[in-house]
Amino acid sequence: MKQTQMKVTMLVLLTILAGLLTACGAAPAPQAAAPTTEPAAEVETPAAAEEPAAPAEGAEIKRIAMILPGRADDLAWNTAAYQGLENVKNERGVETTYVEDVQDADVERVLRDFASQGYELIIAHSYGYGDATLRVAQDFPDTYFLHGTAPGNADNVANYDIPSHEGGYLAGLLAGSMTESNNIGIVNSFDIPSMVMVSEAFKLGVKEVNPEATVSETFVGAWNDAPGGREAAEAQLDAGADFILAMGNHTGMGAIEAAEDRGVWAAGLYADQNELAPDIVLTSIVNRFDAIINAAIDDIAQGTFGNNAYLLTMREGAVELAPYHGLEDKIPEEVKAMLNETAEKILSGEIEVPIIETASK
Q1: Which residue of 26, 148, 160, 232 is surrounded by the most CB atoms within 10 Å?
Q2: What global pTM score does this model have?
Q3: Average of pLDDT values for 176-200?
Q4: Which residues does 130 contact at the CB level (< 8 Å), separation at least 6?
Q5: How many CB atoms lie within 10 A of CB 222?
């Protein structure tokens, strides 16, 4: 594979972030705080409005709140974020809380509620939360906000995403090594840069170890269409595929169900999805959101958080392949060794997996 220098610019950020909208049900409404009043003071001339002050440098984060667009146990996008929050809680001893199934229309209320309760870092884990996060942040300049995958930041706001192309490449090496039919399928949710970069890197990995293999890809056009994912996978399986890469929440889960019914290998995305089908899910491309949360906490302590865009990859510990669980003995030792060696070369910079944002035909 040709080694290509990866450059992540803000233009790439905007295109990556533009496609990742997930939104579900609303959170329960909190009790409204009683209004407080003070005697009116005599004012001669209204003062000019001032810009909100930037948060103080060297702040210590002790309380973190997370807002999820879906369920924390979805074994996909939301599970990955929740597991990251739990890891930070256990490692740092901070207080954490989270709320699930928050719709875009309700997120501003939830953000304001958490900020009013004194949570120092609030994580809004959806593209659809971006505008509300920026609005609320203006009213709470001493609170820090992370919002996932949408553009825009401020002195107390940073955004984030996890480009997972390197994990896609490693999964492709595995698929190309395990296929017997030399026919591999990808069931993808959307033809958008953040998803295409994973599937294209997967194809590069397949071809690196198995030039004779063919890879077909289907874009379902939805994050949570399990029947559509299943139908796409079944068509690929009917055409002879014996390995399926399943990409995107319930759409991917539908593809995994089809693979399980046919007894062929599969790999998942975002969280470890082995428990969905323990006999056939060899691995998953896992997003470690604790890497982003930890980086944000450290930057807050150093006074360097504001206006950041956290785009973390394998080198920062944000992407990894899930364990093989009970299927480890199904993978030849030389394949496992090759995957470990390649991962080390990616981490060292000896191998640089290119970002390809346009789907190949």
Answers
A1: 148
A2: 0.83
A3: 97
A4: 124, 147, 149, 150, 151, 152, 159
A5: 16
